[in-house]
Amino acid sequence: MTTVVIRHKVGNFDTWLKGHQDRVNAFSPVVSSFKTFRDADDPNSVAMVMQVADLEKLGEMVNDPKLKPFKEKHTVIEPIVVSFEVAV
User: Fold this and answer.
1) Is the sign of the CA dihedral 3, 82, 56, 24 positive or negative?
2) What is the dotted CATH code of the domain comprising 2-84?
3) pTM above 0.85, yes or no
């Protein structure tokens, strides 16, 4: 498992937050846990910390054009920034 942080803006935080279970369902094939964060200085900037089993598959899922309606429903604003844990 690799710890991954995904950051992006949303058009409406409350709408996006209500979609939490949709995100869990969509990403459950490769993600085992979600922690959700909201920026203190920008209420429409969010981050999720996840435990990911397959980074390549997660990247494919995040960039899949089929998710466009899902992103629109949840007011996701591109770009989506994905960062992953680095061993030091």
Assistant:
1) positive
2) 3.30.70.100
3) yes
Instruction: Name the one residue in this structure whose structure tokens are 């960062």.
Output: 83
Q: How far apart are CA 47 and CA 76, in angstroms?
A: 12
Q: Residue 26 in contact with residue 67, Cβ under 8 Å?
A: yes
Q: Phi/psi of residue 11, each to 5°?
A: -75, -30
Tokens of 65: 């054009």
Whole-angstrom distance, CA of residue 16 vs CA of residue 68: 14
Q: Do residues 6 and 74 touch, judged by C-beta distance below 8 A?
A: no
User: Would you write out the chain's pLDDT as a tens digit for each of its 88 residues?
Assistant: 899 999 999 999 999 999 999 999 989 999 999 999 999 999 999 999 999 999 999 999 988 999 899 999 999 999 999 998 888 8
